[in-house]
Amino acid sequence: MPSSACFKIPVICSTENRFLFTTKPPALQTWFCRKLHFPGGPFYSGPVTWPGSRPIAAIEADELLQVLRRIEARGALDTAHRCRGTSSQIFRYAIATSRAKRDPSVDLRGALPPVQREHLASITDPAGIGELLRTIDGYQGNLRTRCALRLNPLVFVRPINLRKAEWSHFHLNDAQWRIPGELLKMREDLIVPLSRQAMDILREIHPVTGQGRYLFPCEGNVFRAMSENTINGALRRLGYSGDEMTGHGFRAMARTVLDEVLNFRVEWIEMQLAHEVKDLNGRAYNRTTFLEGRTQMMHRWADYLDELRAMKPKVVSIQQHAA
Question: Whose CA is closest to 190, among 285, 112, 66, 75?
Fold first, then answer.
């Protein structure tokens, strides 16, 4: 049986910003460094000193909470929550390998104040949507990013599903994108009907990425999906700040316009957004429910976007403005 003394909690040196380890699985060391507080990593927000290089079985909930409080005090509340989750994974690994008996992070549920989520910025007025689409058409970056930007409003899936879209999930003969439930938030399969406009984009990108796994692979590494920052970064380069438009904002755009302007049934919209929709008996609809109506809706939505794109922006003359 492994000794708990051989599996010690990692420490970050407050002066050198590096991890100090004793004996531990190399893969775990690499993963933990990348994920938790390695400078430049997604969770890094400054050096943090953990409670010493001690056996992981000896770490108590109050000690872990002290670390999380220091992260919270820097204003990085979201990071503190994610660090608690990451710590839980470490403790669970220790339990599975007989190096610890329990996960003390479980005792800290509710100890940190909740993160106040802000609504992600979106453009929902028709004139603004038309201007956005024309701006996207003028994007001068690489083909993968340009196609992802153009496809995004047509399918309005979650950003992670767009950037991790796999060619094997596209049934082009049926003009459908069938996303497996394990890749979705609600764990239910989703069928995305593909409009003529969406199919045109797929035909354009297929000669470039069609032989690989991902529709939009990472630039320089075809075995990885597009970075989570690519779409938002492209929008910033096009002149849209984070307070104006985000990759996730295409979902709010579709939800608002399909309901308030095009007057489609709310159930169709919510199902196409991969939200849970229940019948009068409280049972969730399956993936094929309303499929014919949703297919009509997706085609009308694509045509409506073309109409907005073709709208000429209203020009106000100096004389009119003065009047």
Answer: 285
Query: Which structural domains are found in the chain, ordered by start?
Result: 4-108 (1.10.150), 126-310 (1.10.443.10)
94, 57 Cβ separation under 8 angstroms: yes
- State both tokens at 116: 């106040």
CA dihedral angle for residue 219, residue 233, residue 18, residue 70, rounded to 10 degrees: -150
**Paired tokens of 80:** 């503190």
Residues 160-206 pLDDT 10s? 899 999 999 999 999 999 998 888 776 778 899 999 999 999 999 99
Amino acid residing at 27: A
Q: Which residues contact 217 (CB under 8 A, 6 or more apart)?
A: 144, 209, 223, 224, 225, 226
Looking at residue 109, the DSSP 8-state letter turns out to be T
> Which H or E element spans position 55?
none
d(C-alpha 216, C-alpha 225), whole Å? 6
Long-range residue pairs from 181-187, CB within 8 A, at least 24 positions apart, any chain = 184/158, 184/274, 185/158, 185/274, 186/274, 186/275, 186/276
How many angstroms separate the CA atoms of 136 and 132, rounded?
Answer: 6
12, 50 contact by CB (below 8 A): yes
Global pTM exceeds 0.90: no
End-to-end CA distance of the chain: 86
Which residue type occupies 90? I
Average pLDDT over residues 228-232: 89
Dist. CA 161–CA 166, nearest whole Å: 9
Burial 246-263 (b: 16+ CB within 10 A, else e): bbbbbbbbbbbbbeeeee
Q: How would you write 136-163 as a 3-class SS string?
A: HHCCCCCHHHHHHHHHHHHHCCCHHHHH
